[in-house]
Design goal:
Layout (H helix, E strand, L loop, with lengths): L1 H20 L3 H12 L15 H7 L2 H13 L1 E2 L2 E3 L2 E3 L2 E2 L6 H16 L10 H8 L7 H7 L2 H4 L3
Antiparallel strand pairs: 1-4, 2-3
The structure holds heme C (HEC).
The site of heme C has 29 residues, from α2, α3, α4, β1 and β2.
């Protein structure tokens, strides 16, 4: 009887605990994969690949601010990545601070730059980088891009 009660509590408790943590990086990345493809390879000329340059952005403060801005506010304006120039438009993604951190960590550490020593994003860091930029635009993200880091050596 006691065991049954404990088991029931565990069964009821599990889904709510998983929900409280929010969706994982792979689940969140599905929305990005619609354009950047599931392996982040992108579509040359249309959607840039999420590759080594993303790991380089994540390694410096200016690049971290850029990554959070791209996901939060979108991106537009000519950008060169992996030898191609893109002049497209990425729409802002409606995600919580925690979700932005989770999806960026997945992109950086699982897809774009495995082995990267860049510190994982936290929801608190994303919140701080978003503070005061609520009305920012996709053009504003372009102005933050560290173009020198985009070029593969
Ligand atoms: C509707 C298509 C679309 C979706 C969805 C999308 N992107 Fe993008 N993304 C783009 C386009 C287009 C660009 C290039 C914009 C330009 O040409 O200025 C881009 C650029 C980027 C860049 C900048 C790359 C660089 O080298 O500067 C990053 C990082 C990025 N996307 C990450 C993401 C992540 C993470 C998600 C999901 C949370 C996502 N994108 C969802 C279309 C998309």
């Amino acid at each position: 009887m006691r065991l049954a009660t404990t088991l029931t509590a565990a069964l009821i408790g599990l889904p709510s605990a998983a929900w409280a943590q929010g969706p994982d990086g792979a689940t969140l990345f599905a929305r990005c994969a619609a354009c950047h493809l599931p392996d982040g390879a992108g579509v040359p000329g249309a959607f840039p690949a999420l590759r080594a340059q993303v790991g380089r952005y994540a390694a410096v403060p200016a690049g971290r601010a850029y990554l959070v801005s791209v996901v939060s506010h979108g991106l537009t304006g000519a950008v060169a990545a992996a030898g191609m120039v893109y002049s497209g438009f990425m729409p802002a993604q409606t995600l919580s601070d925690e979700e932005v951190a989770t999806v960026l960590n997945h992109v950086i550490h699982d897809i774009a730059a495995p082995g990267s020593k860049a510190a994982p994003f936290t929801g608190a860091e994303v919140a701080a980088l978003r503070q005061g930029r609520e009305g920012a635009s996709a053009q504003d993200s372009r102005a933050l891009r560290p173009d020198d880091l985009a070029v593969d050596p």
